[in-house]
Design brief:
single chain, 66 residues, 0% strand, 3 helices
């Protein structure tokens, strides 16, 4: 498969993933206690954590054609 097709597939899957991830993150945030330190730690963690499930797909997208 050509790299540009892989990038298109990834882009089409990335948008729904991020929308669902944001919804889940906001739902979890709503369950946490109302404290600024908790908010800070949660949003730092949530801001980094989205990349880990996508790492295999990013490797696939950037792999050579074949």
């Amino acid at each position: 498969m050509e790299p540009r097709h892989k990038k298109l597939i990834f882009a089409l899957g990335f948008v729904p993933f991020i929308i669902l991830y944001m919804g889940l993150a906001l739902w979890i945030w709503d369950q946490l206690p109302d404290h600024r330190a908790v908010d800070f730690i949660f949003f730092v963690a949530a801001g980094v954590a989205w990349a880990f499930p996508l790492k295999p797909f990013m490797k696939w997208m950037n792999s050579p054609a074949g």
